[in-house]
Structures are given as C-alpha cells and as structure tokens.
Design goal:
With 111 residues, the chain is of the alpha+beta class. It has 4 helices and 3 strands.
Amino acid sequence: MVIYTINRWSPVPIVTWLTPFQLHHLPKRLLWGTEPKDTFPVAYRINTRRALRRVFGAGGFRESEFGYLDDCRTLARFRATLIAELSLWRCLRALGLRYPEQCLLGVYQRT
C-alpha cells in the first residue's frame, strides 16, 4: 500500500483546523483558484507517521518505507509568491532545516 497525504502538523492543516469551515473557500479560491464544490470538511485522522503505523499495523501491515516530502505548492499560483516560497525552501535547506509544509509518503507491506 502506498500512501501520500498531507502532514497534520504542517501550517495549512493547522490553520484549516483553527478556522471555521465557512471561511475556508475564500483563501482556497485566492491561493489555488478552486470552486466552492472543491471545499469540503476534513478530519485529519491518519495524517502523522505514528497514526499511519498504528492503523496499518492493526490491519496487518508494516512500514517498509517512509519520507517527509517538502510541499512548495501553497503559493504556486502566482509567480512572485512561488519564487518567494521556493527561496524560503532553499534557505531553510541551506541551514539544514525542514520546510514547514510537508506531505507524508509511506509504503506499507502486508506481514
């Protein structure tokens, strides 16, 4: 099983969790050009490595590969903000720091 999902502890999911649902569409439309039908409630239940291991372990799977993938798409709609986001990503990497917006990629095998 290959899982690719957003990291619960990245800035966008945290802001989403703290913000009332009625306010979700406007920033999504501005940042990503989405339609109202593309905005729906979410529940971050298996969006951490620990949760993935727990759920898949209970289902008879073991983690064989795992990685945190930097996600530099948040501000990608506009050239200036994309360049700013990629510049921040590059600076953080140069300092040996993780980019805060991440996705999780896990591979789980049946035991």
